[in-house]
Every structure is written in structure tokens, then in C-alpha cells.
Amino acid sequence: MSAFRRRAGGAADAPTPKGVRSAPFIAPVPLLSTGIPALDDILCGGGILAGSVLTLVPCAGTANVSAAELGASARGGELGAVFNEQILAAADVYTDLFLSYVAAQGLASEHHCVVVGESASSFVTHLMGRVDDPEAPNLDRYVERTAEPETPAESLQRMKIAWRYDQPRPAPPPPPTLDPSFTTVFDLSKRISPLLLREAETNHTLTTSSLDTDHALTTAWHTIEQAAKHCQAVAAARKQAPVLRIVVRAFGSPVWMDKASPSDLVRFLLRLRALARSLSMPPADTDTPPIPCLVSVSLSSFLCSSQAQVNVIHRLLHASDACLGLSSFAATPGLCDVFPDFTGALRVFRTPAIGTLTNPSLRASVLRGMASGSAPGSQRGDGGAGGGENNLAFKVKRKRLAIEPLNLDTEGGVSERRTQPPASVSSMADKVPKDVHATPLASAPAEPRPVAAEEPRPAAADPAPTPAPQAPAPPKPFAGLQSLRQRGLALAKDRPPLLARPQDYEF
């Protein structure tokens, strides 16, 4: 009888929650969405494994540093350190942007979201809205009309508006809302509906903690623990298990470091990782249903400053399952001219691999370009960012965020002409001769000169034929020791002596 038994759990027959789908590869946990389809492709080829800890790190320049150099002190003395801190502080905006996508996706999928960190309430209020959400009307532009008759002056003022815009036709009602898909499409030009936030707070699916107290780590852990217990109670009461998303904003900022040490930050992140694992993969001998959990953390640039004194970012990287570096081209001189179409660079330091022997991102991600094999000339060893990987960058447009491979234009550089020159310049360039010194600058064509008949020249005497080089004679076959001795004597006779005899010197 085989010792291996299939794990029989009641969660197999339970319906899949919204925003959750099974992994296309063998994995003990399902996949969740970060709200950015391109980021889902980078992490696990279509999502991120439940129970993972995703860390977003601010970087400088093109974020082309190894995992060992991440968080190291800047070179160049105090001036270099201050300049590096300003570059990293500019990248905090984009770590918050990526983190807001994760939180907005959780609210759109009706997941239990816990947001802790610096100004958590304001962070939730400024989340982006969905594409199909109707725009909130501006009540200041409309005036309530009364039944009183209009005066001639009011009528004249109203007639100044074009007749086609005076009383517009009411907009058609929005289509009925369908079940949200795995990834929701968001619009950066819209804000999340206040009614949605109020409804989430009423249903206890949204919890925020701004950490205004002195003991920030204790308060944050208490808030997260209460939300986890609430999800366990909900999972025990109904058949479908909820999904928990934990969002930690500006981790390591002075608000967190008021009465905490760098070791406390690492210990806190390890506790979050253990909590996410225990919820997503409960023990087999218990009847607790699995609760998919995702922890998303954005690190503050304060951890990279000289005041932090310890390279805690490198320690936090090893305590997380996935780590991405984000930089801003606007803060680095010259990068905006080299890459005018991109906002910043994206560096993959680590991708999650829970319950798998191989990293699923290496064989499933299309953007990273490592599915067919890595290049043999790479010398980096970052535990998942090997040779053959594409350089990635992101674009922040008016309505959406895009992640694409970072490449120069086909012209090959910034000094190349990328537009066609004017027609006048092209016509003048065609008239100018290619070789000015060799072409005479004459307005009229030169008259042809008469060519005299050439007299026959006497034929030169044929030079003496040079003898053809003779091919070397083939070696004679071996005919015994006598023949070998004769060959050696012949070679010694032709070769000059190395040491002359005393009688050969002349005095």
C-alpha cells in the first residue's frame, strides 16, 4: 500500500472566490491578481501565488543593481549620499502607485483589505477607479431650476449657450454590472467611488490604520491580526472562503522607526509571511478552509538614507517572496533624454515560488523573456534574474500604466536624426557635390579637348622568367638504424655549433 495519500479537503468543492483562479502549473495555492496584467505576467506568468509577500523597493537610475548591492550606502561622500536620497525619494511615488493597484484590485474583487502605514486613510481615498465607473457629477456646475418664470435678462443669458448644449439628451444608463474578472481594468484619471469605500467599511471588508501612535509595529500587527480572525470566522460560517489582502505602505519610514530598530522591521515582516502562509496553506489535520492571502509592502526611501545606518533593505529582501525595484528617470539627469517614452525602470530581484521546485516566472513570463533559456555570458546570480532577461520599464500615461521591455530606438542613439529633414534642405543637399576638392565649381560644362592619335610604343622586352618554387622532397622511408644515424649527422653538419671549441677561437 502506498504511503502517499491525496489530501482530501472540503475546500476542493467550494466555489472559487472572486479575483482568484487556479495556477496553470502544479502549486498548492491559487493565483491572485495585482491589478496590473503585465505585473502578473512577470511574477508568476499570470498572477501571484497566494501566501506571498510582495515588496516594492525604490531604486536609482535604471535600477541595474544586483540583489547584494540593494540598499548599500551611496559613494561620493555626503554630497553623493544626499543626491542619492533625492533620487530614491522620487521613486516613492511609483511604489505607492503600484501598491494602489493592489489595493484597488482587492476592493474591486470584494476582498478583505487591510491598509496600514503612513496616511493610510488618505491613501485609500485617492485610489484609482474602474474604467466602467460613471464619473461623479460636479454639483457646483448645476443650479436647481425653479418653477418661477424667467425674466428677459435671464432668458438672454441662457440663450448665449449653444442650442445643442443647452438641454443635452440624458446619457444612456450604464450596462448591468457583471461578475468582475480576474483582473480589473482601472482608469488613472478617475477616483474610487466614495460609496464603494463606505460600503466596504460597513461590511467590514476594509480596515485602515494610519499609525499615529508611538508603537507603530504593535498597532499594525493588532489590526492585521483582528482582520485575520474576522476572515477565519467568515470562512467557518459560510461555504466560500474570503480573500485577505494586507497592504503595508511606506514601511520603514520615520513613522515606523520611531521606537523600533531595523531588527524589529525584519521580525515584523517574517511574522506577516508566516501569517500569510498559515492562512493560505492550513495544516492537513485541521478542518480550517484555506484563506488566500497576499501581503504587499512598499519600502520607504528612508531605509536607504545614511540615518538608517544599517542595510535593512537587503535583509527585508530575503524575508519576502517577491521583490521588485522601481526607479524614476525624471530624477536622474540624462535618462529622460535617452528614454523619453518611459517613466522609470523596473528591476526583478525575486519572484515567488511556493510549493514548486522551479521558479514559475522563469518558464511562464513573456515579458522577462527567459522561457527559452538564459544567455551563457551572464555573470549575475540574483536567484531568479539570470542571463537572457529583458530590461523592463514602465510608462505612466493619463489613464493607464504599462510595463514594456526597455530598449533604445532602432536608429541606435540619441544623436541620430529621427525625423525627415525639410524638402528645401534635402534639395540643397542633393545639389552639393560629394567631393568638393575633386569636382570643379564651373557653371558651364567644359569643352572637350581634341585627343591626338597615340603612337605605337615599342614592346618592352620580356623579363626573365622566375623559376617556380620547388616543392620539398618527400621524406625518405625509414631503412634502419644506419639510415637514422646518417640523417642525424647530416642535420648536425648543416646546423652551426652551439658551443665553439677552444681551438676555434682566434687570439
List the helices and strands and how they pair.
Elements: E1 20-21, E2 31-32, H1 37-44, E3 48-49, E4 53-58, H2 77-108, E5 112-117, H3 120-125, E6 128-130, H4 152-159, H5 163-166, E7 186-191, H6 194-202, E8 206-209, H7 216-237, E9 244-251, H8 262-280, E10 293-299, H9 312-318, E11 322-326, H10 335-338, E12 344-350, H11 360-364, E13 392-396, E14 401-405, H12 423-431, H13 481-494
Parallel strand pairs: 4-10, 4-11, 5-8, 5-9, 9-10
Antiparallel strand pairs: 1-2, 2-3, 6-7, 11-12, 12-13, 13-14
Order of SSEs: EEHEEHEHEHHEHEHEHEHEHEHEEHH
Fraction of residues in helices? Answer: 25-40%
- What is the tally of beta strands? 14
State the fourth-level CATH superfamily of the domain at 17-133 and 180-372 and 381-405.
Answer: P-loop containing nucleotide triphosphate hydrolases
User: Hey, roughly how much beta strand do the residues contain?
Assistant: 5-15%
Poorly predicted regions: 8-12, 75-80, 137-147, 169-179, 373-386, 410-422, 424-429, 432-445
Mean pLDDT: 75
Second rung of CATH, namely the architecture of the domain at 17-133 and 180-372 and 381-405? 3-Layer(aba) Sandwich
Pairing-aware structural class of the strands and helices?
A: alpha/beta
Give the termini separation. 105 Å
Bulk shape? elongated
The CATH topology label of the domain at 17-133 and 180-372 and 381-405 is Rossmann fold
- Rg, Å, rounded: 38 Å
For the biggest sheet, the summary is: 9 strands, mixed
Strand arrangement within the widest β-sheet reads 8-5-9-10-4-11-12-13-14
Number of helices: 13
State the CATH class of the domain at 17-133 and 180-372 and 381-405. Answer: Alpha Beta
Assembly state here?
single chain
